[in-house]
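Hi both,

Apologies for the delay on this - the queue was longer than expected. I finally got the magnesium ion-bound model through. Below you'll find the protein sequence and the ligand SMILES exactly as submitted, and right after that the structure tokens for the full complex including the ligand.
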Amino acid sequence: MTNTPDNAPKSAILSPQDAEARVRASMATRRNRETRFRMWGIAAIALSMCFLVTLFGTIMSKGIPGFFQYYVTLDVTLDRERLDPAGDLSDQSLFDGDARGLVRDALFSTLQVSGRSNRKAAGKLISLGSDERLRDYVRTHPEQLDSEQSLKFALDDDVDSFLRGFISRDTPESDRRINDKAIGFIDQLQEAGLISYEISDYLFFGSASRNAEMAGIKGAFIGSILTLAVCLSLAFPIGIASALYLEEFAPKNRLTEIIEININNLAAVPSVVFGILGLAIFINIFGLPRSIPLIGGMVLALMTLPTIIISSRAAIRAVPPSIRDGALGIGASKMQTTFHHVLPLALPGMLTGTIIGMAQALGETAPLLMIGMVAFIVDIPGSITDPGTVLPVQIFMWADFAERMFIQKTSSAIMVLLAFLVVMNSFAVWLRKKLERRW
Amino acid sequence: MDNFNGIEPPMDTVGNIRVNNARIMCNNVFVHYSDKRAIDNLSLDIEAQKVTAFIGPSGCGKSTFLRCLNRMNDTIATCSVTGEILLDNQDIYAPEIDVVPLRARIGMVFQKANPFPKSIFDNVAYGPKIHGLAESKSHLENQVEEALRRAGLWEEVKDRLDQPGTGLSGGQQQRLCIARTIAVSPEIILMDEPCSALDPIATAKIEELIEELSEKYTIVIVTHSMQQAARVSHRTAYFHLGRLIEVGATKELFTSPHHKLTENYITGRFG
Ligand SMILES: Nc1ncnc2c1ncn2[C@@H]1O[C@H](COP(=O)(O)OP(=O)(O)O)[C@@H](O)[C@H]1O
Ligand SMILES: [Mg+2]
């Protein structure tokens, strides 16, 4: 005000002409700023898209081959005497039988090998799981005993890597995991057209194994489902009940304020801390066994509870107060108002929060390592009290193994995990759409 | 003024706060939000089967006092009410009073129409359902129909009872809310500026409805429109800054106000 020019009119408000001129003059800067801001936005999005594409690109390029593996077709004579010495097809009898010998004989006769060292080299071509595969076949097809059948057996993971070109013929023999003799046999099998590249049944139906060609995710997948089931059935009702109580019933005093702050803080606690808590309380104090989905689910429920409570409270708060007034105004009790009006309106939001929480739980590794779900467990868990592991932990373990084939399987397992997440999130979106009232 | 039983008489309310057939009697009511006084020593009778209007500049405590009459203020944690509000000689703020049956007797219609996000039928049927008023499905249907008829909405919605109540026009929604209140057979209906969001035609319909309803129900209406108070009410109470300034028969109050503040307000010169 003090620096008004002398010749300026008395009024501090500019004349319309002056104002228009100034507005015009400022337009260029404003437009420039806007353009620059837009550029920054586009650049940021482009960068994140780049990362995303790279991420998916690498995972897919490694993971898709992992869904396939090499098999060899052999004509096996299903000799009843040798396969099933006791003749009752019991597990014990099949185990005592000589499935391994039969597979090897089939391989040797196909390759027409003789001599100890040749046989030894040839025997290494097929997976160690081949005898179990033959026993499985006999279990499901006992009527085929005493006939000759063409059966597929997985090739050993080194052979698999060689066929994929990861092991070169040009490297000196002493430096490769597969010797010249074996390469000769592989060529022989390929010429005979006996080697095929197919969808890996081991990946989907096998469980943990130290042999890369036999390792699969079924055990971990079922472990994940069991763990999530425990987590959901604990965290959902407790979370929603807490949110409803805190929002609708609890008196607003210091105590509820402290509880509120603590719930918010819990959401920021590193997940591994919940694992330590689970270890200390569920395992050391209550003496529950380690490595079981029950404990995994309980620990993950602790971890997801704050997420569920916070999002449920937000959903409850978004219900217009006028709806509550309307119900209370005609004499509905607090309880009726909450359960007839508030809960149905808040439910879509609550479910979205819950599913986001579940998705977090699905991808969680650290707390489960603490309670021993990282153990090497071959059996597929049948219930929540059987030892098991979960997908992300399985991925974590595979990523640690040196074999080439585990690298592919790690990426494949990541793809399965991502698919699981996508399915869960789509379900959340669908559920929200379905429950959301458009009126 | 002999029925005060020694309680301090309310300050400077002009006009007769007592009536012969009072349905609700309020004595020395104070309302505070935390420390802030919103109603200051108010005493007033609500006459049975008549329409009582509360008028006054906004923020003067009309809604606050209205919400005391069916204890809707209970939902506001900071709100405290002292004094007596007698319904059938029973203080509704007495500890043994349960608000659920109380609010079934004293229904409320709000400023902003707030139908439930349910069908028209379910909106009206909700009250009878939770209070167990209907003996059978057909009985319930009859109750819904009659409530909608009394609210003057039946003809407009009878073919689409299963459609959402929130899909109706503003005026229809407000009448739906009135029907919802009527369906629980209240004795008293409280209305907080029920027409403030409505156009003149919808307003006229509601006003007509209020007139009809006053034959059966005791009605208290808060309004910011003096014309509306003049049209629908029998008795008018003028509030100013938390105090009841003047009360009297509507005609009298509007033609010859006694208090200066009342006169300023109704002649449009308050402040
Ligand atoms: N929930 C509340 N919390 C605190 N103060 C409130 C609340 N509701 C109303 N008040 C205050 O009480 C006074 C009366 O409000 P109200 O009864 O809504 O007035 P009116 O309905 O006459 O416009 C106002 O000063 C308002 O600010
Ligand atoms: Mg108001």
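Main takeaway for now: The two ends of chain B are 31 Å apart (CA to CA).

I'll put the files on the shared drive as well.

H.
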